[in-house]
Write a structure and sequence with these properties.
disordered N terminus; 8 strands; three-stranded antiparallel sheet; 1 helix; mainly beta
Length: 107
């Protein structure tokens, strides 16, 4: 079961295609199930968005692991409990949050 309540809103500065800042605050929404985790930066992958962060908390519910990752803002990442165990994801670890830009909703 997936709920929007697990989404995170991050405020970022808006940039144009020429990378000039417009000094306008935006809200960005991404669902926890749209984010993948890695313990290292991955080269040669189509996912260009790889944000480094630190695991703050992991809690398990119904076979899913919800990971709170501090990337400057806290975000929640949803992975399977099996993935959490195989990656040995624990509090304090450095991880990378990977996502496609198409999964972002900008408001």
């Amino acid at each position: 079961m997936k709920h929007a309540i697990h989404c995170v809103i991050i405020n970022i500065g808006r940039k144009t295609r020429s990378t000039k800042t417009l000094n306008q605050e935006l809200k960005v929404l991404i669902k926890p199930e749209s984010i993948a985790l890695s313990k290292e930066r991955i080269e040669n992958i189509s996912l260009r968005n790889q944000v480094a962060g630190t695991m703050k908390e992991v809690f398990i519910k119904d076979g899913l692991a919800f990971c709170v990752v501090d990337v400057g803002e806290n975000i929640i990442v949803e992975v399977t409990e099996a993935s959490q165990k195989s990656l040995c994801l624990e509090k304090g670890q450095r991880v990378y949050c990977l996502f496609k830009s198409a999964s972002l909703k900008i408001y």
